[in-house]
Amino acid sequence: MHTAVETAPVKNPKDRWIPWYFVIFFTVIAILDGIFVYVAVTTQTGVVTENAYEKGLAFNKQLEQARAQPQLQETLSFENGMLRWQAKDESASLLENAAVTAKIIRPVQDGHDFETTLDYKGPGVYEAKLDLPFKGLWKAEINATWDNRHYQTSHSFTAR
Fold first, then answer.
1. Is 102 helix (H, G, I), strand (E, B) or coil?
2. How far is Cα 78 from Cα 126, in angstroms, rounded to an integer?
3. What is the 3-state secondary structure of 47-60?
4. N or C, where is the chain less crowded by C-beta within 10 Å?
5. What are the sequence ranges of the domains in the chain?
6. Which phi and psi angles does 59 have, rounded to 5°?
7. What is the pLDDT of residues 106-141, one digit of tens each?
8. H or E element: which one contains 23?
9. Which residues contact residue 90 at a Cβ distance below 8 angstroms, ignoring those fewer than 6 apart?
10. pLDDT (tens digit, 9 = 90+) per residue, 21-72?
11. Are 90 and 71 in contact (CB under 8 A)?
């Protein structure tokens, strides 16, 4: 009869490193998470919507105001630092002698927004020279008032 001889398992020297592999893995994850948190916190531009709840409640009112305003045919362009807005009214007549202002907004970075007046340059054309501090995406919120009427629109443009 053969008796089974029990032999002690042979320990591989690499086996003693297994717990350290777990420690190293979670340490690397913690370091990467720390880097991600640091980058997220230090690169926040501060662009948020102020009074978001109140604006949300008033959204239907804004939609009604947009439907009630005149239906202009208008275009906006930005070339060589010149913002140009051209408009025609419902009867395709060029919009003349309106008071036109533009709020210029940098959507991706807070602190560079400003307002300017667009000067009447001829039949239906209003212009303003803009000295933009950065290239890239900008937004112009146009407000025009004439003959007790008001028109509001917004356009995005790229400064090159």
1. strand
2. 12
3. CCCCCHHHHHHCHH
4. N
5. 14-42, 70-159
6. -60, -45
7. 988 888 999 999 999 998 999 999 999 999 999 999
8. helix 18-42
9. 70, 71, 72
10. 999 999 999 999 999 999 998 887 766 778 889 989 999 998 998 899 999 9
11. yes
Give whole-number Cα distances, 25 to 16, 18, 21, 22, in Å. Answer: 16, 11, 6, 5
**Longest CA–CA separation in the chain, Å:** 116
Within a 10 A sphere around the Cβ of 81, how many other Cβ atoms?
A: 11
What SS3 state is found at 119?
strand
> Is pLDDT of 143 > 90?
yes
Contacts for 80 with CB less than 8 Å, ≥ 6 apart: none
CB 140 within 8 A of CB 154: yes
Output the pTM of the full model: 0.68
Architecture of 70-159 per CATH? Sandwich (2.60)
Which two tokens mark 149?
Answer: 């009427």
